[in-house]
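Ticket #173: bound-state structure for iron/sulfur cluster.
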Amino acid sequence: MAVESQAQPGGGAPAYSLTTFESLLAWGRKYSLYPFTFATACCGIEVMAVLGTHYDASRFGAEVVRFSPRQADVLLVAGTINYKMAPVLKRIYQQMLEPKWVVSMGACACSGGFYNNYSVLQGIDQILPVDVYIPGCPPTPESVIDAIVNLQKLIETGAPRAAERWAAEGRTV
Ligand code: SF4
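RESOLUTION: The complex was predicted; output attached.
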C-alpha cells in the first residue's frame, strides 16, 4: 500500500500518514481472497495440500474457501475440463462476486494437458478470462502459493484484470 508518512520532530511514531482510498481498498482485497475451487481431477489434491497446515494458505489471507460462487472472488480451476463441463464452469464464473479473478492450475486447465482429444477443452482461457496460470502436472503446492502471491501483486498494483481486458476486446463469458 502506498503510504506517505510525516515523522514527528522528536522522532517516534509518524504524526500522520496519507494514502488513497484505492490503495487502502486494494490492500484489504489483497489479504482477503475468497477462493472457490473447481477441482475435477488430480490437481485438486494439491489444492488440499495448500490449504492444510503444512503449506497454510491462511498466511496469505486466502484460506477461507467458499462453497458457493456467490461468496467467492477467486475461481481456482484445478483439473481437466471437458466440453460437457464447460457450460457449468462458465455458469459458476457468472455467479461470482465482482471484482473476480481466475487462476488456471495445472497443464490440463491451462492447455488440456495430454488429453488432446475430441472431448477436452484445450485450455480454460477459451471460455474464461484467466489472470494467473500455474504450470505443472501437478503443480507443486509452492507454485500454487506463488500464484496467490502473484495475484496479490496484481491486486495491489491495480493491474487490469483479465476480465477487463476481455471486456475491452468485446469478449464476454
Ligand atoms: S495437470 Fe496433471 S495432475 Fe493436474 S489434473 Fe491434469 S493430469 Fe492431473
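RESOLUTION NOTES: The helical segments are 21-30, 43-51, 86-95, 106-111, 141-157, 162-168.
TICKET STATUS: resolved
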